[in-house]
Amino acid sequence: MEESDKQHGPGDATSKVHKILGVEGDATDKTLPVSSGSYQPIPKSSTAAAPDTDSDSDSDEEPTNVAYDYGTSEEWKDVNPVPLTAGSVMPIAFTPQFQMVFGYFRALLATGELSARGLQLCEDAARLNPANYAVWMYRRKVLAHLAVDLTGELQYISRVIEKNQKNYQVWYHRQKIVELLKDPSKEFDFTAKMLRKDAKNYHVWQYRQYILRYFDIFDHNELEFCDGLIRADPFNNSAWMHRYYVLVELPRACGRPSLLEGPALEREIQYTVAQLMGQAHNESPWSYLRGILRDHWAEHFPTVQAICSDLYSQNIRSPYLLAFMIDMYDEDIAQGFQATTDIQKGELLARVKAICSDLAVKHDVVRKAYWNYLSQQLAKKYERFLPAV
Amino acid sequence: MQQAENKDTSPASYRSHQRRTSSRDSERSHALPFWMGSEMPWTNSTEAQWETERRCEDLYLEHDVSTDPLESSIALKRKALKKFMLRGFDSLPSSYLTLDSSHPWLCFWILNGLRVLGEDIPVETAQKTISIIRACQTSTGGFGGGPAQAPHLAGTYAACMALCCVGTEEALSVIDRVGLKSFLFQMRQPSGAFTMCEDGEEDTRAVYCAVAVATLLDIPLSPLFDLAPDWLSDCQTYEGGFGAIPGAEAHGGYTYCSFTALYLLNKPTQCRLDDLCRWLSFRQMRYEGGFQGRTNKLVDSCYTFWQGAVFPLLQQVLKDRPDYTTVPMDSSLFDHTILQQYVLVCCQNVDGGISDKPGKGSDYYHTCYALAGLSIAQHNLFGDNDEIWGPATNRLEEMHPAFNLTIDCFFNARSFFIEN
Q1: Rounded to an integer, what distance in angstroms lies between the CA atom of residue A356 and that of residue A360?
Q2: The dihedral of CA B78, B80, B82, B88: what is its sign?
Q3: What ranges in B265-309 are assigned the alpha helix state H?
Q4: pTM, 2 dp
């Protein structure tokens, strides 16, 4: 439904709005901009704890005077809006339109009416407060009750999400609609578009992973997609995480074997190492490398050790490199890849303690307490390899 | 305290960005930005990081961040904070309209902020809170985000905590424990996870809200949460932190929810503790001093609590770990000094509240979590002394890290629910 269908001058609504406000109580009256009666758009520079608003939303899609005049409408004259009782809410400066729309919304909730006009009301309510989960719950009930064609609903929720990308409710709503449509074909382009606006938006990544999992999609070229984002910004940890999701978490969730075996694992190691060589001060690839090696240290220990030694000999002292080396030596002591004798293990432990100490006093002093703790912990774990004093 | 050994490390020119080397920042010189000594690519991430550090730098240069905590003059602006908090019960600007489904949260953020400051709740404010929370109460026993809104676990958690902040018998009696218990059962999923509301999203927030409320109200944790630890441990990622659901990226808020829930369910060892400890430690920003929420994201004062409060819980577990890796635990594993500096120097806003980071406006959410986290940083559970940075008047009330209530409010409510 397009907004143009229901643009009305806001001035006419004031009488009805005042009727609602009259019951509201003194505290709120003082803060209401009732004098003009005009719709106050929610400031984009909102400082509220609500999810970030994005400055790049398409303003042409949203007329300023959005609220339909429910108060003078023939269609709504049988409905008595339910005002808020005095003192029942925090004293937010509700606009007259906000009061009006939610007054009617509460009325429909109270009567349990599931109707086409209810859908229209939802759009106004969701525009004023997209974080109101009750509005979306009600909307889904109406959609189901009226057996509405959900293709249009998908277009509608796309428009809403473009203006409210960091909001739980809108993404959940989209999820439910796509489940009913049984068609994930538009979801990759849509999420890619949203990631162009913010490549680390948590909701988008979680949603994209949901689509892959729910529809058990394993032939979409997700690694290429991640690679594009990582090339644009190697510090995009979400894109690294998504690689792991596609190779390990998704197959596991769908009951298929891990894609991180044999040549695929080697390819991932190469890919990650290329990133590390370019930038050793980026935590994301180091974490990723640790993640993909978790059950595979044995096969790849020599390769990884050579890389670390190379970087270290170039005088690189990135805390992420050093932290990784600590883990690598820990694995070697525990599993005996190269350090096979107690003496070798003892030497390695001394090396680990020296790295922890360097980190604590020179390279990563902010985490001094952590490095000292880790040093003690590993010494305790492997104390049998320490030379007797 | 911190020597300036590496001060002579000549930085690679990075967009002509020069770090200061004056004597008064010697204490922070250990915290030179992470790209020093190497050429960094100019990406969205590094650009935003650079800008944030620059804004913090301006403030750290402007204020005397001296080594001796007691010599510093950076005070917590208590009067302004109290005024800012109480103002929220008189009027909230229209930028808060999107919180019309979070009325219990607004109550909790404000009341808890006052409590952390050591303030009593004025009688009138207590009455307003009780009326608002009652209006959010539903016939199921759960609380919605506002009048006529369906019950929701986040609203329920916030409502219960807000009532605990008030702490009177009248306030605590609002809760319908029998109804609430059945509401929690309704939100439980076959996997052991919980949904936030009927026909709502499922994530680790929901589990935490349910566990925290059940624990506080003395509702039996079994069988309600029998499967929850398995589901929660699936949410731990390769990085070591926890995501919203299995497979999602590690994130400070979800990590707090997941690990605290495991802790309260007495199953904290059902996750990889060493990986968690490393991930958590790495979230403290070397230059800004505060915590980031995710790897390669920006510092944000709310994570002072979300990340900071996991430390005492995790350290408690590591300390009592029933294996050979137990070592003495006599201090916080994060740098409590620079964390306090971040909140006090970089985030106190002219309007009296606390903001996310320099250049952003303040709000009740950030103010509540920054103050609660500041308290966590001040009160070292693993040493003999508190670590108050700045004047002694900066001292805040001690918090229970697993509930985000002051110790007094927590025990007051807890004994009420055990007795009744």
Answers
A1: 6
A2: negative
A3: 273-282, 303-306
A4: 0.89
Scanning B229-268 for CB atoms below 8 A from A yields: 237-239, 243-251
Pairing of strands B405-406, B399-400: antiparallel
Q: Which residues does A61 contact at the CB level (< 8 Å), separation at least 6?
A: A159, A162, A163
A67 closest CA partner among A20, A106, A104, A24: A104
Cβ-Cβ contacts under 8 Å for B91 (sequence gap 6 or more): A27, A30, A31, A91, A93
The residues pairing with B405 across neighbouring beta strands, listed in sequence order, are B400
- Looking at residue A63, what is its pLDDT? 44
Enter the DSSP assignment of B263: H
Instruction: Please count the residues of chain A.
Output: 389
In chain A the first and final C-alpha atoms are separated, in Å, by 82
What whole-number distance in Å separates Cα of residue B250 and Cα of residue B291? 14
Q: How far is CA A335 from the centre of its chain?
A: 38
**Beta-carbon count within 10 A of A183 CB:** 14
Delimit the domains of chain A by residue range. Answer: 218-296, 317-388
Is B321 at the interface with chain A, CB within 8 A?
no
* Dist CA A319 CA A128 (whole Å): 47
Whose tokens are 């991180």? That residue is A260
* B68/B36 Cα distance (integer angstroms): 27
Taking only the tens place, the pLDDT of each residue in B48-78 is: 998 999 899 889 888 877 666 666 678 999 9
Domain layout of chain B by residue ranges: 70-86+100-268+284-419
pLDDT (tens digit, 9 = 90+) per residue, A44-74? 333 333 333 333 334 344 444 556 899 999 9
Q: Which residues of B63-88 are buried (b: 16+ CB within 10 A; e: fewer)?
A: bebeeebeebebebbeeebbebbbbb
What letter does residue B7 receive in the DSSP assignment? G
- pLDDT tens-place string over residues A229-270: 999 999 999 999 999 999 999 999 999 999 999 999 999 999
CB contact under 8 A, A172 and B94: no
Distance CA(A20)–CA(B348), nearest Å, equals 39
Question: How far is B301 from B371, CA to CA, in rounded Å?
Answer: 9
CA dihedral over A169, A170, A173, A179, signed as positive or negative: negative
Q: How far is CA B269 from CA A218, B243, B281, in A?
A: 33, 18, 18
Tokens found for residue A4: 């143009």
B219 and B233 in contact (C-beta within 8 Å)?
A: no
Kindly state the greatest CA–CA separation across chain A. 94
- Residue B366's closest chain A neighbor by CA? A49
Question: Per CATH, is B70-86+100-268+284-419 categorized as 1.50.10.20?
Answer: yes
Q: What is the ipTM of this complex?
A: 0.91
**Which residues numbered 239-278 in A keep a CB inside 8 Å of some CB on B?**
241, 244-245, 248-250, 253, 278
- A-chain CB neighbours of B40 within 8 Å are 279, 281
